[in-house]
Structures are given as C-alpha cells and as structure tokens.
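Journal club prep, notes for RB
We'll compare a predicted complex against what the paper describes. Inputs for the manganese (II) ion case:
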Amino acid sequence: MNFKVAVLPGDGIGPEISVQGVDVMTAVCEKFGHTVSYEYALCGADAIDKVGDPFPEETFQICKNADAVLFSAVGDPKFDNNPTAKVRPEQGLLAMRKKLGLFANIRPVQTFKCLLHKSPLRADLVDGADFLCIRELTGGMYFGEKYQDNDKAYDTNMYTRPEIERILKVGFEYAMKRNKHLTVVDKANVLASSRLWRQIAQEMAPAYPEVTTDYMYVDNAAMRMIQEPKFFDVMVTENTFGDILTDEGSCISGSMGLLPSASTGESTPVFEPIHGSWPQAKGLNIANPLAQILSVAMLFEYFDCKEEGALIRKAVDASLDACVRTPEIQVADGAKYGTKEVGAWVVDYIKRA
Ligand code: IPM
Ligand code: MN
C-alpha cells in the first residue's frame, strides 16, 4: 500500500510520542514493502499560539486529503486555568471530529499479563479482561444546542435516528467479529434520548441473531466495569457516557499510557492514544510511547494489514516482558528507559523480526 499520513503532534508530550509512532510506522512499512509519506499539521494550543485557531483550515485540508491521521494529544494548563479564554485547545479536537465526521470512537480496554499488578483492581478480576467501548463521537450533549448566562445554562442531548442507527451498526458489526456479545449502555429509565437508542437497538437486534444483545443503565455499567470487567465484549454508548466510561476503562489495564483508540466515520480515520497531553511531563522523556505505537497498530488493522498490526503488538508485548518500560510501569529494580529508548527498542525489534 501507499500510505499518506497526516501527523498531528499537538501539545505537551504529544510531539515526543508522535516521533515514536512515526518511527514505528516507517519501520513496519519498510519491512512489509509499503510506502509511506507524512504531512505534519498544527493543532491544539500549539496551533492557537501560532495561528490563533486550534484546528486551522490548513490542518483540516491536510487531514481530509490523507489516508489516516496519526494524532497525539492537545491541551495546555494555561487554558485550563483561564475560564474566560475564547479559544481552547480541546475545541480543536471537537472540530476535527465534527469536520471529518468521525462518529465512531473505538476504545479497546485490554490488559497485559505482566502488568496485572499495576491495576487498582484485583489481578484475578482484570486478568483476561478485553472489551471494546464504542463511543458515539459527533452528537449528543457535546454538540447539541447550548445556552449560558449568569443564572441559567443548558446543553441539549439530542440524537436523531440516523445518528443512532449508524453507531449501533458499528457496535453490532464489531460484536459479530468478536465474541458476539453487545451491551447497549444508556439511561433509558430517565432520558428520552436513551429511550430512542434502546428502541432502535431493539429494532436492529433481530438482524444480528448470533449476537447476544443486552441493555444496561450507565450507572450500573460503571459499577459492572470494575466489579466484573470480563462481562463485557463490545459496549456501545452515546458521546458523554462513553467519555466517562472510557476513562474508567483505561485504569483497568494499569496505565493510561498503554491504550490506543481509533475514530472512524465519513472521512479520514484518526488514530490516537486515549491519554492526554500530560503537560507536566513535557520534554522529560518519561511519557510512555506505547499507546501511540499501538495506535499505529490500529491504523494498519483498519486497512486490513493484519500482519503489520500483529507485529507491532508482538513488539510491544516483548518490550514489556523484557522490562523495557517507562517509569510509571517499570519494576522496582528495573533499568531506566525513557520515551525514546522504549520507542527505539520497539523499532529495533520490528526491524529484526
Ligand atoms: C476524550 C477527551 C475529550 C472529550 C476532551 C479533551 C474534549 O476527554 O477524548 O475523551 O471529552 O471527548
Ligand atoms: Mn475523555
């Protein structure tokens, strides 16, 4: 294949982990005879500082014309602590999702055998946990009508039938490819929007007779995820619930620095780690590059390059087993490896495989 990749390093630790993702992408392409070209673009606080817009038109065009976007992270404390800021780095992320029509956010929750002890949950509960959260990404409260004055404020949680149908379809299809168990997460006992989700899911379920479909209220799902994470195979939910549940899911595996994600929809798909920009670690060479590297694995898998994805996963597993790890997951007497060293080790493994 010939891959045209838009690279959006963004803010904080973004640029450091981005380099590692790109190096892995290049190494895998060399190994498997693919060609790859990269086009770099501004986003987030970096783009606000340079051109006054967190998702400039030029960035949008570069993304639109690429086969895939490799995204790192956006966010900067100087905006977090300024509630009157007119533009925020996060708006860049939301604009990218909306403009590229990325309605399906796929967030896998996985565990790594050698890191089970890092999970705040008991090892026997998390050992073998492996599920996908499919989060609707371009609708609901994030994008619904908003109002704010000094005495009143609201956000509207609106969903239309086509929006619900297309994301549920993604859920059913992933369930078919996996263990054929779909959990539709909603708040249908209270919210009208959730009742429509549930109604449509019930209409669609008979078309997937092999899939066991169950329905769970979001409060119950939040509890079940920590009580019995192995219950889940594929869960599908609306934007806001998915935002909250995927942060919860990320801690199951012991480090946020390990989990990738894919956002897909109408235009170019985006692959990004689920962790944020971790500004405190910027430039310190301590951020874990594995979530970004695993995002590259998801990129290959999206294009049906299964062997390429599998090799990256194998290299990542091998690095963890060899204790080539960044500080937050390193063993007590383990050697010191930084972002660059872990990335270089993975690249080297790929070249030699
Ligand atoms: C995420 C993030 C974003 C979201 C923020 C940065 C806007 O938390 O990708 O989960 O809320 O969707
Ligand atoms: Mn979030």
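Talking point for the session: Residues 1-102+266-353 form a domain with the Isopropylmalate Dehydrogenase fold (CATH 3.40.718.10).
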